[in-house]
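Researcher: We're teaching a course module on how sequence relates to structure. For the next exercise, students receive a sequence and then see the predicted structure as tokens, so they can try to spot secondary structure elements on their own. Here is the exercise chain.
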Amino acid sequence: MKPSALSSSGVIVLIGCALACNRAASLPRSESSSSSAALATSSAPLGGVGTTAQPWFVGHWSGSYRAQAVEPALQAPEAAQEQWHTASATTPSNGVLSLRVAPNGEAQGDSAGDLGQAKLAGHAQADAIKLRFEAGESNGGYAGTLILRRENASLCVGTLRVSTGDSLAIRQASVNLKRHE
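Model: And here is the predicted structure for the students to work with:
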């Protein structure tokens, strides 16, 4: 291609772009705003105004646990191992859990049983409810976590892991909480 042909084709492209820009600028406001309005209405929620479903976690949940003694993962001096074996119970610790979760995800509840009277507090998000378990000084002062995952619309499954403040007594339990309608 000759240099003069290349520059003349570039001029034709520039003229075409300029004409297109002028055409868009000269459109009446009603034509351009109607396309914006159509776009805005197409992104409106289906089902009408105010039809939002509650998050999966909202409501009252309850269940029970059967906690077993767990050995510490860290190596300890022989004296500490003796204390741990003395403090660890060979019988399971049984108890019940009750939990209420608000639409904003705030979760609060109670636990009663062999691990003591405990308060549960935490937050629900995505597909999990994460809670702190705090029994205070009653029955050894167990504290730890309860992490639950949504199994289906009416069942959460998870693991309770608690220990005393000195970590001589460590317990772990599988937990199933069912939703109450």
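Model: If you want an answer key for the exercise: Strands lie at 59-69, 93-101, 106-113, 118-125, 128-134, 143-152, 155-163, 170-180. The chain has three helices and eight strands.
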